[in-house]
Amino acid sequence: MIPLRAVRRALSPGVRRFSDASGGEIVEDAFERTGSAQLTKQASLYVHWPYCLRRCSYCNFNKYISRENNEHMMTQCLQKETETLLQLSQVSCVTSVFFGGGTPSLAHPSTVAAVLETVSRQASLSEKAEVTLEVNPTPVGMSKLEDFCRAGVNRFSIGVQSLQDDDLKILGRDHSSRQALQTIEEARRLCPGRVSVDVMFGRPKQSVESWENELSKLLSVCDDHVSLYQLTLERGTQLFKQVQGGEVTVPAEDVTAEMYQCARRTLHQHGFLQYEVSNFAKHQKAVSHHNMSYWKGRQYIGVGPGAHGRFVLPGEGGVAREARTQTLEPDVWMREVQQRGHGTRRRIQLNHLELLEEVLVMGMRMTEGINHKHWELFSPQLTLREVFGRSTDVQELLQSGRLILDNRGLRCSWHGLALLDSMLPALLVELEKQISPRLQRDHHTDKQRRPPTHDDSNVKRADNVRESLPVG
Question: Model's pTM, two decimal places?
């Protein structure tokens, strides 16, 4: 699913924050306290399982219907690429692992155990580290949950999508609402407090009233975390063709906007706190710490066909972060891993502006926004106020109440929630205006210092990196 394209709620007065056991607010990030030196020493790991039993009508993800039983080979290659990329990154600690897809619950639990064992041989992986597995709520998926826990999984993300059986058929899902509820119950038994439910709105024939009733029913049985996704019609999918041909209708944009607001109200009434544009949790333990690493601009390593990563490669003499994409097609990817240890197809070295663009766009997804300490990790020379506080366009956003820049940092207000997409261009333009002159000066100085024989043309430079996150 494509994450909901909306802005996150600001933590304004009257809005609760997660608290620690003593009742104090959890505001400062432990990672930020350690300083920028930790940026290259830690990383999260995303592992992509590319296979599905069938393709859902709305899905355009990198997934394949396996024609043969090659799980043993796939497992070996996932292990090998994990080993290679961890060695190249030289990270000393893997903070979390996420098995996405595809349908990773189709994999044998021994595959998960093998990858986690490889991680532990190459870097520190705490027994308390979050290890998430995406689960398709079918009888087969549910029957393997306990074995996945034994393999090392301690958090499940269940792709419920809908509790309406007719809608599930339109979406091409291979489970029923009853099976979804049973899977949630079993997952909660095994991992209490660490079960997330994915649910989709903006579905064909859906109304605000039916959505509110469905969500209330789901919240009566689900655990402590909910991810909301708005159905997006992707060109080339079966559902896109059906809508274009007039066979199926979907709610209008203003209706889906009201569905989102309805969901936020309903979730709040059930004790959920919004911490990111699409994500809601009842307490700190329930937060997806893996996804937080993306939104915080931390390093992540992507393993498996089509996976994405962002990390520095000291093992190759690198000092700048790279955006890396693995080969898409599983059979080709496996051949490349067997030949050279990894299946990286594309490497783009990010300059300082491009890195800050990602920090800005990802950070603004969080309800807390970007605090000053967090920004300083990536931009020690220019503060948030120096970058954004002087712009006429940004001042208009601040004065209108849609954007807030104060002693805590930069974030959206409640009223700016649905307008992030319209505000980001002004923020990105101002960022470029402030950073580009410094980059040009640094580049000019660097050219004067470089030996004439040096050539770095083998590493491509990104002009505008906007790649998707590697989460399902």
Answer: 0.84
